[in-house]
Give the backbone structure.
Amino acid sequence: MYYLLLLTIFLLILYLIRAIRKPKNFPPGPFWFPIIGNVFQLRKLTAALGGQYLAFSKLSEDYESNVIGLKLGVNKVVVVLSYGAVKKVLTSEEYDGRPDNFFIRLRSMGTRNGITGTDGELWKIQRHFVTLHLRQLGLGKKPMESHIQDEVSEMLTVLEKNKNKELEIETIMQISVLNVLWVFIAGSRFQRNHVRLVELLKLLDERGKAFDIAGGALNHMPWLRFLAPEKTCYNLALKVNDKFKAMLMEPIREHFETWTEGRDDDLIHFFITEMRKVRDEETTFTETQLLMVCLDIFLAGSQTSSSTLTFAFLMMLLNPDVKKKVHDCLDKEFGKSEPITLSERNRVPYVEAVLFEVERMFTTTPIIGPRRVLKNTVLEGYNIPKDTTVLMSLYSLHNDEKYWTDPGIFRPERFLDEEGKLIFHERLLPFGLGRRRCPGEILAKSCIFSFFSEVMRSYNIESPPGTQVPSGKHHSGITLIPQKYRVVFDKRHF
């Protein structure tokens, strides 16, 4: 019994030593505690500063390094904060993996399917399939602009019915962006008063605030879901999953019922056609994969583009001089009923500069990733072991004082030269780089540009009478979400 006790103590000490020991030449960072690593340190710092991205910036200052090494639960995590290192990760094959962890699987309803959270052959096959067929359906071409203009008309109708009334603009933008996406995916659009859709968007807001890009404590200590399912937001995640599945499976089942040979009017029909052709048991074209592809696209369109638009209109409230320049620019270049599309953006470089500045100052995904290192590698002189999770701070790139000089000031002119022509800064990376660059980039840009320009041409946006101008603050979670604010759309006469 005595020797057994000694052996137990020895093994425990050995475990503790291994748990806190860092790999040789691992990036600098705080001390690792056994079992939990830096989970609670990071949570405390995040709460104190108001965002995980701010916590990472503080650690970068404290350790005087643009590459920080952490351990979250049992997972080694490296955070990258400089342009050179971020570009290296985004464009190098050894960083193309995705972690296979609890949160990734929870997001994907217990599976490892879809595009966003996968890697390897499944990711290559499915990403190629989706991008190819979205192009065939008109993505980046005239059909896309036509779909966007249809939704612009619907959106302007909503604003016209509610002119001079107080409105929350975020939901209007979310549904508009989703409808453009959904026409490509399912060949239809959502009704704006769809009860399930409105409820789901509210749940997404809650989910976005509850988790961070690394999945929070629940990801690193998944056993907490048994002890505190509400506090860890595990129950919330399950609720969101159930709502998503119910909403997305409805059009998928309808497509199975109406599918005929050669039907190719939307992505779901394309996918079902591929399922009918392939009978291999190893195929990636399954009903579960179809559901997850729809989920990935839904999540991609539900918040990032609509949040960018919501931030853009907020900047118009807070910067009347910029708002006037936008109005003057649009009035000069476009007739009252002339469609404003992305293909015509070169006529209004100031408007595009305004949107670039919004994307820089309010990076809706301040931390991108996570990536999984596929083999032992070296980054900025530090050893990065295989299977390490890598997170990248776009916030740090977009707020680098050495490059932008005054990053805390909203100044669209930083994207214009002396002749008023657009300047493209390579350090502005809202859609990423490399093989995992956002496949819906052109659609997102088109929606943001057209929706913003069409609304600004038709309406003057003001705070409701007797109310204070919004503070410009935001919620930080998986994405940056603007705080709710109300506006009045006053019809412009020109």
Q: What stands out?
A: The radius of gyration is 24 Å.
